[in-house]
Specification:
Chain A is mainly α. Chain A is 64% helix and 0% strand. Chain A has helices at 2-38, 63-81, 90-93, 103-120. Classes of the chains: A mainly alpha, B alpha/beta.
């Protein structure tokens, strides 16, 4: 039983690390949004709403804006976590459900890549 | 007083790169340079050197991380680092081919990509790539060098389109031979043969290169992009 308890704790520990990483990633995404909004025209500015449609049908951002946003987020992930991740590589593009639908899906996807890179590094 | 413009030049150990670094420093710019070796004698105040191979992605990313932390901005990138080599196709070993492509093409691509990430934040930036007259002149013996620079010219023209919306211009200059380490191994008669094909028959000077670079990076040149200018009347 003691073993099972330890395992449970270990599992919860990992979960909380993932949550912490995701939380930090959301903050970094908002910083990137601030930076992008600064150079956008007022009508193109993005709201910091995790569930708002981002890219695709009904999305708030065009492809060029998405390129800028993704590159800014990649840079922030690199500076903050010390890992190099490619958010818009073939893997992301080949997913049936795009990670760029909302900020929430983007944060989930970025978290999984950062965790993977940290594990690998 | 406005903050000094920040310029990054690759290949500053010697030759054109070093000369341009000195020129920019004299203009009051902050200069970050890189290359396998540090410039000797050292460059003056306002210059920071990173020892690296321009095709080493991890090292280049490290340089940009330091640049973001120290300056938070980049106004000018000069992709000068280059490897040249003369050889007949039948005698050219693959390691020589790979080295030229890595430094001239991958290195230029890598610095353009990382610089553009930083420049797009400000909505402005100037990138100048170094090419060569060996490309338009189709010089025998320079197949790989000229091909690698043909790739640099394509990069220049395409990136001009990709980065235009971010206010970043991308241009290239192709000097005729300048007496530097890069041309030291070229036989004298070859250099003379080349000079004869120019409209103006003399070797180039660093001032000739600096003059074109100065034009490309001028704030007033924000409508000049995707251009390749060769010295000496080569076209």
């Amino acid at each position: 039983m003691a073993g099972a308890g330890t395992l449970g704790l270990a599992a919860r520990g990992k979960e909380s690390v993932v949550l912490e990483v995701r939380e930090r990633i959301v903050e970094l995404i908002w910083e990137a949004v601030d930076a992008l909004n600064e150079i956008q025209s007022p009508e193109a500015r993005l709201e910091k709403d995790l569930e708002a449609k981002l890219f695709g049908k009904g999305g708030r951002i065009d492809s060029l804006g998405l390129v800028q946003l993704i590159s800014e987020i990649e840079t922030k992930l690199e500076d903050h976590f010390g890992v190099v991740v490619a958010l818009a590589d073939e893997r992301a593009m080949s997913q049936t459900r795009s990670p760029f639908r909302t900020f929430a899906t983007l944060a989930d996807y970025a978290s999984s890549l950062v965790m993977e890179a940290k594990k690998g590094g | 007083m406005a903050e000094a413009r920040v310029a990054l030049i690759t290949g500053t150990s010697r030759g054109i790169g070093r000369g341009l670094a000195e020129y920019f420093l004299a203009e009051g710019m902050t200069v970050i340079g890189c290359g396998r070796r540090a410039p000797d004698p050292p460059l003056g105040e306002g210059y920071t050197h990173h020892c690296l191979d321009v095709a080493d992605e991890a090292a280049v990313k490290g340089l940009f991380r330091a640049l973001r932390q120290q300056h938070g901005r980049l106004d000018v990138l000069i992709n000068n680092a280059g490897v040249a080599g003369m050889n007949h196709l039948l005698l050219t070993p693959i390691p020589q081919v790979e080295r030229m492509l890595a430094t001239n093409v991958t290195g230029t691509f890598l610095f353009c990509r990382e610089a553009a990430k930083l420049m797009q934040r400000a909505g402005r930036g100037r990138i100048v790539n170094l090419t060569t007259v060996a490309t338009p002149l189709r010089l025998a013996g320079e197949a790989i060098y000229a091909s690698s620079k043909a790739a640099v010219e394509s990069l220049t023209r395409i990136l001009a389109h990709e980065l235009g919306p971010f206010g970043i211009t991308v241009n290239a200059i192709g000097p005729t031979p300048i007496p530097t380490a890069l041309t030291a191994g070229v036989p004298e008669e070859k250099l003379q043969e080349l000079t004869k094909r120019q409209a103006i028959r003399r070797t180039a000077t660093l001032d000739d290169v600096a003059n074109v670079v100065k034009f490309f990076i001028s704030p007033a040149s924000d409508f000049i992009t995707g251009q390749v200018i060769y010295l000496g009347g080569i076209s």
